[in-house]
Write a structure and sequence with these properties.
- It is built from 18 helices and 18 strands.
- The chain has helices at 2-5, 8-14, 30-47, 57-70, 76-88, 164-171, 180-190, 194-199, 280-293, 313-321, 343-354, 415-419, 424-431, 437-446, 450-462, 472-484, 488-501, 506-516, and strands at residues 96-97, 130-135, 138-145, 155-159, 162-163, 209-214, 220-225, 235-237, 255-260, 265-270, 297-301, 332-336, 358-361, 370-372, 375-378, 385-388, 391-393, 409-410.
- A six-stranded mixed sheet has the order 9-10-11-12-13-18, with helices on both faces. A four-stranded antiparallel sheet has the order 5-4-6-7.
- A hairpin with a 2-residue loop joins strand 4 and strand 5 (162-163).
- Helix 14 packs across helix 16 (472-484) and helix 16 (472-484) packs parallel to helix 18.
- The longest helix is centred in the N-terminal third of the chain and has 18 residues, at 30-47.
- The protein is globular.
């Protein structure tokens, strides 16, 4: 992320020529826009605990002053794009300027309170009649207006003359992502806003874009697509025939669960941490009771969870701690991903610290150590909504600089699985058996993740039932296996970790000395 802080505004500025001719159509004059821009900068200075931890205060001030100077040359929406990019410099998923949309029902929005409409309808951004998702293997159309249903499943190759990778890089200027995971989610969403694409130099026009797409059979096609008009939308997606994944079964519910006989597991989906028609505590208690009665494994899915009330996390965490049968690596699985954010990230932190659950899926969309609890501010003249973080939420470990929480078992998010209606992360959790400490330690040792290694070994040292266990043999075995595979760095890491816990262990010392020699 640091790499982009110096180029975000350069990207924005280069694209301004395409839209400055519309400045005369503005509904806000220069003074009104400058007042709102100043209010944004003032709020960030006043409320954010550490606003310039990534982008220095001097650079922020320079971009702020440049925007004030450029206001007379910009259209209303161009000002909004520039202002969104200014806020994005804070590098905090909770500190954001909402981009008002003509079709907010299909835009990415993860606030827990409604975002008011702007003062003028003309400030709302038109949208392309489709939705993108960024997978491991590219950016794909996952939904579209009914008349464009044939392009669902196609991969984005280019927008006008800008290839998909460059377009995605450009829209990072107006994402509020604090890591690559959330950036992938928000960036795909921003690619559907023609005015923003024009302002960022991606497209030639806001009124008509040429999309180059690669179909499933490898053919390239081009479609000239215009933004949607306001009004009712006839929509189609990849699962029009009803063959959706289990995670999409009840999209309107904040949490729900069911017993899956085939596989003998209870699937528990939590899309928001809150009390619904029933208290979250009652829901958790009932779900775990069913799991125990069935002698089943528990799979908790928080991949669609943008957060909520972090104080309610205690309900689930304590329930697992108190349940000896479920508080085991091969009995309770937690599915995480790019939409695991805010209070859901705090839940991951607490489960990581206090329990023996196994995380499966993608890295989370939030840093374990992050900012939150934003103050919501409606700007006086434009009516745009600004949110600014007010609190720092520390993770359970000191100096935690991780960009996300990595899963114990990484299952990549691919277009092939998605369009086939498959859910590889759920499939893994439903079928995994006999997970032991050696299995868990191998991946983090291989990629040098000391925080994750520490989770297993330090927690084992602190737990009443395992504090006296000797796991030096496990580290010796893993080190030897890494050596056999030619991975000397991972072998060295395994031996050094072992010596941290067992400094007098002669076998570990000898193995490391032999490797070094």
């Amino acid at each position: 992320v640091t790499m982009f802080t110096g180029v975000r505004f350069a990207i924005v500025t280069l694209g301004l020529a395409a839209i400055t001719t519309h400045a005369q159509e503005r509904v806000l004059d220069d003074d009104a826009w400058r007042a709102d821009i100043t209010a944004v900068a003032s709020a960030i200075h006043e409320f954010h605990p550490r606003p310039f931890r990534k982008t220095g205060a001097d650079e922020f001030q320079q971009q702020y002053e440049a925007l004030l100077d450029d206001v007379p040359e910009l259209s209303d929406r161009a000002v909004i794009v520039r202002l969104a990019a200014l806020v994005a410099l804070i590098d905090d998923g909770h500190t954001r300027l909402s981009l008002p949309r003509q079709h907010p029902e299909i835009g990415l929005e993860f606030g827990h309170t409604p975002t008011p409409e702007p003062e003028y309808a003309s400030l709302e951004f038109p949208q392309l009649p489709l939705m993108f998702e960024k997978f491991e293997d590219g950016i794909f159309v996952i939904a579209a207006r009914a008349d464009l249903a044939d392009i669902i499943g196609s991969q984005l190759v280019a927008i006008d003359d800008t290839d998909a990778a460059a377009a995605f890089t450009a829209v990072q200027a107006i994402t509020y992502a604090e890591n690559e995971q959330l950036e992938a989610l928000m960036g795909a969403d921003r690619l559907t806003l023609p005015d923003a694409l024009a302002a960022l130099g991606v497209s030639h026009s806001e009124s008509e874009l040429t999309l180059t797409l690669a179909t499933s059979d490898g053919m390239q096609i081009q479609r000239v697509i215009s933004p949607m008009e306001p009004g009712v939308l006839a929509w189609s997606n990849a699962f029009a025939d009803g063959t959706a994944q289990l995670r999409h079964k009840h999209p309107a519910r904040k949490f729900w669960s069911e017993y899956v006989r085939e596989g003998n597991y209870v699937y528990m989906q939590m899309d928001e941490i809150t009390d619904d028609d029933v208290p979250l505590a009652a829901f958790v208690s009932s779900t775990l009771q069913t799991t125990n009665e069935k002698n089943a494994r528990l799979i908790i899915d928080i991949r669609n969870n943008f957060g909520g009330s972090g104080g309610l996390n205690k309900t689930l965490v304590m329930s697992i701690i108190q349940n000896n049968a479920l508080n085991q690596y091969d009995r309770t699985f937690v599915l995480i991903g790019r939409r695991t954010f805010s209070a859901a990230q705090m839940l991951v932190n607490e489960l990581e610290q206090y329990t023996r659950v196994t995380f499966v899926g993608e890295p989370t969309g939030s840093r374990p150590d992050h900012f939150g609890d934003p103050k919501k501010i409606r700007l006086e003249h434009s009516g745009l909504t600004l949110r600014v973080s007010r609190l720092h939420w520390s993770s359970y470990t000191a100096f935690d600089d991780r960009q996300s929480t990595r899963p114990d078992y990484l299952v990549k998010w691919t277009s092939e699985a998605y369009f086939a209606g498959r859910d590889p992360a759920l499939e893994f959790a439903a079928s995994a058996r006999d997970i032991d400490l050696k299995q868990l330690l191998r991946p983090p040792l291989a990629h040098g993740d000391l925080a994750q290694v520490g989770r297993y070994l330090l927690d084992a040292r602190r737990a009443p039932d395992t504090y006296a266990n000797d796991f030096s043999d496990i580290l010796l075995e893993l080190g030897a296996e890494f050596e056999q595979d030619g991975d000397k760095d991972s072998a060295s890491f395994a031996y050094r970790v072992g010596l941290f816990f067992y400094p007098e262990n002669e076998e570990l010392s000898s193995a490391l000395a032999l490797l070094d020699s």
